[in-house]
Fold this sequence. Notes:
- The protein is an alpha+beta fold.
- Helices cover 26% and strands 25% of the residues.
- Strand 1 and strand 2 (47-52) form a beta hairpin.
- The model is unreliable at 21-27 (pLDDT under 50).
Amino acid sequence: MTQVTAELGNLKGYDPFADSEENAGTGNGIQEGLIHIRIQQRNGRKTLTTVQGIHPKFDLKKLVKVCKKQFNCNGTVVEHAEYGEVIQLQGDKRDAIKVFLADVGIASSDLIKVHGF
């Protein structure tokens, strides 16, 4: 019986943003500057969505992990010489990532700037 209880304990929900408790869920987060969401053309119809300017307090790798699952795409965190750490997601996910960042509470929608065609 205790083994079944221990196994059920592993089924608890997981909040990837639990370590960023400060201002969680208030809608404005701790974001101070603008977040820039851009699209880059790769080859043919392939595109990359880049997200730049997220406050360093947030763990970008955890953020990418959640985005990959929610948007059904691949993604990574790359180090850019000019912009610092930048999130790259495959495909045109500009609108989805804007809604996601606002819903999670990382930044309000007025701090998120979407670039591109």
